[in-house]
Request: fold
Amino acid sequence: MSAVNTKIVVAIDGPAGAGKSTVAKILAEKLHCTYIDTGAMYRAVAFEILEKSKNPTEDEIEIQAQKILEDFQIDLKFENGMTRVFVNGRDISEEIRTPRVSQLVPYVASIDFVREKLVDLQRKMSRNQSVVLDGRDIGTVVLPDANVKIFLTASIEERARRRFEELKSKGIESVDLETLQREIAARDRADIERKISPLRQAPDAIRIDSTNDRIDQVVAMILEQCELIR
Reply:
């Protein structure tokens, strides 16, 4: 597919493990767009909190988050299919993907002033360029005027299997499949029930269930939608 001639904004929402980031990265390359990894931004805040307090209470999380966001400079560099994340000049790309950070992210993402700050940054990044973003509230809150809105999902069992295979490929075999299923189900509940920007499908979003589809099939379906607005 050739580069688009008009600005295009693709918003991909959905639950954890549905393949949003993988699909978004491929789309960005095919559409010659900038990929903005919004999840990495929340992970970066969570990581910084854990750096300052190893086992923070809820009050400590909010206090540390406020301090961190006072001087929070984040730079996302998408290269060779991977997002490098820099906070105040420090590369924390690997550190933000640990299980401890993953466990803290849902709570951090539910803090109103954290979302306000990061949503503002995401909108600024998207203002003057074609972009692909994925997250929980891109099409509903962050960029409600996106050209193409997708709600990508899959069964809990399939999402857990994918996560299990991913961890296994990285040499991490300490987590079993049933534990991952419980964690993903808990993450779904946290995302759906949070008061600030809960996970939901935008009325004009196209729902794609990827349980039985390959990544290339999902990408092809979304590219078809992108062609319609060219």
Q: What stands out?
A: The first strand starts at residue 9 and ends at 13. The radius of gyration is 17 Å.
